[in-house]
Structures are given as structure tokens and as C-alpha cells.
Design brief:
Elements lengths: L5 E4 L2 E5 L6 E9 L4 E8 L5 E4 L2 E4 L4 E8 L14 E9 L22 E10 L8 E3 L2 E3 L10 H7 L13 H5 L1 H136 L3 H19 L1
Parallel strand pairs: 2-9
Antiparallel strand pairs: 1-3, 3-7, 4-6, 4-8, 5-7, 8-9, 10-11
Keywords: Coiled coil, Membrane, Transmembrane, Transmembrane helix
InterPro entries: Ig-like_fold (IPR013783), MSP_dom (IPR000535), PapD-like_sf (IPR008962), VAP (IPR016763)
Family: Belongs to the VAMP-associated protein (VAP) (TC 9.B.17) family.
Length: about 325
């Protein structure tokens, strides 16, 4: 069994949440081993988050940071609780492995390799002085609402223009008049309830619908435009990365082709030299064979002349016999 390959700091992704704004946080990975460790970051909501870089290789006893960016959101989740999760997978790889050599198969459990997995949860934090509800010690807190002390008739006359607002704001004037407003609000509360009930259904609904249609449409269009621009930027980044990868591959191919061409030129030059050498050797062999044939002819002529000379240097057999017969006759006559 392996010990812990990678130490993650921190183990929670904390984003400062604001509507229609991006938020980022950084995570540090520490390699606690004497091996090269490859890592990969996954999420349950890939369209909502952008991780750079999402893969990499950690050298022995080294550190690496990656940044997680949450895209702009149209609205806050209920109770500011996010259920998104992140998974950091890590495994040991051979020395010399680069970021480009990382493949999805390295993190497959079917291969029999040891894959370490660490889960990270997402926590949303409200910005300072924000009216949005934020979880504090497991309970939700909200800024109290104060109303101005108004006469009964004036309040009833102004009920028609009241619009429902869920966002609570607190300024310096409300803080100064805090104690004075509470008794007035309590006195008017019972008198306002019947009037509010009477006016609510008939007059507040059209006003709310009008506010929704007039105010929310530009906001929705603006959010859509921001999402479109963010998607276009992400698409442009992906296109640039893919283009760079293609350019690198094309450069490698061009270099390989040039090397092959240079090697082919060298081979062609060597082949031409070999052909010239072969033609020279063939010509020399032909000349050698011709000289050999001439020498053989000259030798044959010389041998024939030599044999003719030998035949001319001897005496005919008939002449020898006649000389022998004459000498025998002369010897016989001399003895007789």
C-alpha cells in the first residue's frame, strides 16, 4: 500500500459569491513522495467551473498550484449551500513524464494501478456588507427591517406605490432613528394589516409584474450576454490551445519531413556515386577481358610460329635412310 501521494491545501474550495460576477480560488498540491506523481481534477459541474491547469505532473517533493474559477451565476442557491463536488486523482508515473504525456487511461482503476482520490466540497461565502443571506454557525441571519413613523392616512395613501423588495439595506439614518421607529411601527402595524390585505391582490400584483417585466428583462439580457461572452472567451481559449497544439504538431511534422528529405538526398548522392563506381568497374572489367583475349591470340600465334620453326630445323626420314644405306655399302666395299 502507498502512503498519501499528494497533500491538498486547503481541502475546501471557498468562493466569494456575488450575482453576475466570477469568483476564483487557488488550491496547492504537495508531492510527499520521492516519485513523479501525475494528477487530474474532475468536477460534478464542468460547465459551471473552469480549472487551469486540470492535469499536471509533480516532481518529487515539489508543489503545484491550480486555479478554479466559478462562472457568473444569475442567482444565489437556496441558503447559500452548494452541492458541487471536486475530485483530485493522483497516481505514480515514470520519471521524465511530461504534462503532454498524460492520458485518461493513466487514471483508470481497471489498469491495476494505485489511484489516490481526494474529494473537495464547495463553500459559498457572502462578500462583506452584503444583504444576501449567509450561513453563520449553521443558522441564517438577516438584517432587521425598519419602517418610518407615518400618519395612518399618509401610510394608506402610499400603500399603492409599495413594491416588494427582498433585499434589505441599512444606512446611517436608519441606525440613528432606530429607537424612534420601533414604537411607531408597532402602533401602525395593526392598522396597516387590513389595508395591505385589501390592496395586495388588486394593486401590488400589477406593480410587481410591471417591475418584473421592466427591470428583469434587461438584467436577464445582460446576464445572457455575459454568459455568451464567457462562453465565447472559453471557446476562444480552447481554440487557441488546439491551434497551438496543431501548430506544434505541424512543426514537428515539417522537421521530420525535412530530416527525411535530407536523408533521401544523402542516399541519392550515395547511390549516384555507387552507380558511377559500378560503371567504372564494368568498363575496367571489359577492357581487362579484351586485353586477355588479345594476349591469348598473340600466344596462339607465337606457339604456331614456334612449332613451325621446330619442324624446319630437322632432317627428312628418307634422306636419313639413303645416307645410312650409302654408308653401309661403302663400308662393305672397303672391307672386301
Amino acid at each position: 500500500m502507498y502512503s498519501e501521494l499528494v497533500d491538498i491545501q486547503p481541502r475546501e474550495l471557498k468562493f466569494t459569491f456575488e450575482v453576475k460576477k466570477q469568483s476564483s480560488c487557488s488550491i496547492r498540491l504537495v508531492n510527499n513522495t520521492y516519485h513523479h506523481v501525475a494528477y487530474k481534477v474532475k468536477t460534478t459541474s464542468p460547465k459551471k467551473y473552469c480549472v487551469r491547469p486540470n492535469t499536471g505532473v509533480l516532481k518529487p517533493n515539489s508543489t503545484c498550484d491550480f486555479t478554479v474559477t466559478m462562472q457568473a451565476q444569475r442567482s444565489a442557491p437556496p441558503d447559500m449551500i452548494c452541492k458541487d463536488k471536486f475530485l483530485v486523482q493522483s497516481t505514480i508515473v515514470p520519471a521524465g513524464t511530461s504534462d503532454e504525456d498524460i492520458t485518461p487511461g493513466m487514471f483508470s482503476k481497471d489498469s491495476g494501478k494505485y489511484i489516490e482520490e481526494n474529494k473537495l466540497r464547495v463553500i459559498l461565502i457572502s462578500p462583506p456588507n452584503s444583504p444576501v443571506l449567509s450561513p453563520i454557525n449553521g443558522a441564517l441571519t438577516q438584517v432587521p427591517v425598519y419602517e418610518a413613523s407615518l400618519p395612518k392616512d399618509e401610510v394608506l395613501s402610499r400603500v399603492k406605490i409599495v413594491t416588494p423588495h427582498h433585499v434589505v439595506a441599512k444606512d446611517e439614518e436608519s441606525e440613528m432613528l432606530d429607537e424612534e421607529l420601533k414604537p411607531a411601527a408597532e402602533l401602525v402595524d395593526e392598522e396597516l394589516k387590513p389595508a395591505a390585505k385589501l390592496v395586495d391582490d388588486k394593486e401590488l400584483k400589477p406593480v410587481a409584474q410591471k417591475v418584473d417585466t421592466e427591470e428583469l428583462k434587461p438584467m436577464a439580457q445582460k446576464v445572457d450576454e455575459e454568459f455568451k461572452t464567457a462562453a465565447q472567451v472559453a471557446q476562444m481559449v480552447d481554440d487557441m490551445e488546439s491551434k497551438q497544439a496543431r501548430d506544434v504538431e505541424e512543426l514537428k511534422l515539417v522537421k521530420d519531413i525535412e530530416e527525411m528529405k535530407s536523408k533521401l538526398n544523402q542516399l541519392e548522392s550515395k547511390l549516384s556515386e555507387a552507380e558511377v563506381t559500378i560503371s567504372k568497374l564494368t568498363e575496367e572489367r571489359r577492357l581487362t577481358i579484351q586485353e586477355r583475349e588479345n594476349l591469348q591470340q598473340e600466344l596462339a600465334v607465337f606457339q604456331s610460329k614456334r612449332s613451325g620453326r621446330r619442324a624446319q630445323a630437322g632432317f627428312p626420314l628418307l634422306f636419313v635412310c639413303m645416307v645410312a644405306l650409302v654408308s653401309i655399302m661403302l663400308g662393305y666395299l672397303c672391307h672386301s
